[in-house]
Amino acid sequence: MEDSGSGSGWGPGWTVSTPHPNGSYSANPAGVSELRNASSSNSSSQFAGVELLQSFKPLIIPCYALVVLVGVFGNYLLLYIICRTRKMHNVTNFFIGNLAFSDMLMCATCVPFTLAYAFNPRGWVFGRFMCYLVFLIQPVTVYVSVFTLTAIAVDRYHATVHPLKKRLSVPACAYVLVGIWLLSCALVAPAVAHTYHVEFQEEGFTICEEFWMGQEQEHLAYAYSTLVMTYILPLSALSLSYLCISVKLRSRVTPGQPSRNRASESQRERKIRKIFRLVVLVVSAFGICWLPIHVFNVLRDIDINLIDKRYFLLIQLLCHWCAMSSACCNPFLYAWLHDRFRAELRKMFAWRRRCSCHGGVVLPHSNSVAVSVML
Helix 309-324 to helix 29-46 angle, to the nearest 10 degrees? Predict the structure, then answer.
């Protein structure tokens, strides 16, 4: 296995690329020489399939553009509805809002710079500062999105399985969200210490990559811990939480109203089937979207030669696109398939139509009652 590269591979540097805290190499000329040698070897293998990648450019760019459009607009609209609607200011929706914000930030940082770095023959062309800033934000937003998904599952588990227990308060929710961001930054720290911005003036290109020279065991430990923290544990938590929710809802009978008549029983069964479908979609979307990039990274960390160099960049870019598409799924799964969010969205667009039709004068209307469905 090569002595460079690591982690989750969701950034444009084809690794968990985050900035070195110093950005200076003059104090250790020998280290710079070793880094440049490793960089040259790594770059030659990574860009072996650049011609193949360029041939797929007309297909890849529209796919990524669609992810940016849907991910940014969908999550922004979701965040806007939560912020402007006071009755939606609760713990669950604050978690969903944090997820929308991190997904929106992930689309804005991961996608454009990934494409630019992939298709530009000069490598990273945005300068040292932007390399450090962008490559720091990328893994943090991924961690925040994954941990927030887990927090949503746990919160809904307690709300459904233990409805009589005291729920998380809004101040406590704020502490949890701050903790998620701080934990995400802390987990990125090992990658921060091993990522360098290197300019190859003679070759005419620049890289911003993660290198673990002489620390192979530490590299593997960090890579596999990233896999566990960002995929295995969250997927297990999602599956277990929503399984318990489904079992609880299936066995629940409304107090004081036993299911005696066929109509009420039929309505209850429809609700259970609807919730179960949403549960399956939530877990499946997370598992399917993030599986390819993690499989790719495991193969790369075991032996980079397991992946044909000609298809290396193309496969990694497609896996990265699949992971980023999760940011498009979340607004639909956590909002547009949710009764209350749909009701607020309809009210918002209806209000705008009335304003445009009546010169800005809003006519009185009856308020619709939305039933919130617990995923």
Answer: 90
Boundaries of every domain in the chain: 29-253+263-337, 339-375
339 Cα distance to chain centroid: 24
- Mean predicted lDDT score pLDDT of the chain: 75
d(CA 186, CA 171): 23
**Alpha-carbon distances of 63 from 112, 115, 336, rounded to whole Å:** 12, 11, 22
CATH number of 29-253+263-337: 1.20.1070.10
Residue 16 above 50 pLDDT? no
What is the model's pTM?
0.76
Distance of CA 139 to the CA centre of its chain: 9
- pLDDT, tens digit, 9 for 90 and up, residues 72-112: 998 998 898 888 888 888 898 899 899 999 999 988 887 88
